[in-house]
Amino acid sequence: MKITSARKIDHIKLSIEKSVESNVDTGFKDVRFVHMSLPEIDLSDVDIHTYFLKHRLLAPLVIESITGGTPQAMKINSNLAKAAEDLGIAIGVGSQRAALENRNLIDTYSIVRDKAPSVPILANLGAPQLLDENAVDYAREAIKMLNANALIIHLNALQEAVQPEGQTNFKEVLKKLSEISKKIDIPLIAKETGAGISIEIAKYLKSAGVKIIDVGGLGGTSWAAVEYYRASKAKKGNKAKLGKTFWDWGIPTVASLVEVSSIRGMISIASGGVRTGLDVAKAIALGANLVGMALPLLKPATQDSIKVKRVLDNIIQELKTTMFLTGAKDIKSLRNMPVVISGPTKEWLIQRGFNIKYLIKKRS
Predict the structure, then answer these.
(1) Least confident interval from 52-61, 136-145, 227-236, 264-273
(2) CATH number, position 220
(3) Given 10, 125, 273, 311, which residue has the most CB atoms within 10 angstroms?
């Protein structure tokens, strides 16, 4: 139990103090909007509200799962939740495994619902925990802890493989996902943690009852990098080498988003290296229903909610400005804005068999 909590402290500390981002670009640089020199709308009229989990969000944003399960995380989650409530956006929590092991840590997660009573909150368990014989009970406890609106199952095979104490048994996770989807009354979200999700896996997840996929693509925080630093500090040379080798493993965010968004009926969340409101707009134009951020909010969240809100307010203003410059008056209009895809992202999509002409939508 103490090991899980200590690991979470390491994750927070390293993510703030070390360079833990991927060296591979997300793909957002390969996507450009067609500038609308005569937008025929007023910037002040741009409407960015959307709907998610039967809630009206004031912006198409989610504060991604970051932490919980250690006393230091309570302040972080409190500040993130306050910002989410004030801005009317969704929020997830980090893996709740620590609180299931040690009930004294429940408050580090439940504080999110206390501070954000009216927005969608996403509970969170790891894929390896589904293989426990008590997995359904764990899922129900995690949901109850937050009065959650959906349950994330995070798929972190890469992190587990390079982590010194990683759990690498992923056998029959899909079967367990299917079982749990039938036994809980809120939607399941499958979330990658920085290595992206392919169309093939997305199809499997849909067949198992997953309603929402958070792509968690390559280009943002690399958990292989985080575990590299942990293994180096612990003098575990073999694991450190693994972390360094797989630092940039995965499917870049934009490519993963296009793959997942091609699945009919799947709700998609774009995350992994999202850093600007322009990135948010590009993700929505490429099919994302929501867009998530984590690392840029972590350090501000160690201070106060005002600093978190300041980061998100900038993102929102950049999103609105992008929409104004494309003539998109609302989120529905933004989804139909033409984009140009080039570079490595175009090459990836062509080799993977996607119709670029279809993706590069034309305004009607």
Answers:
(1) 227-236
(2) 3.20.20.70
(3) 273
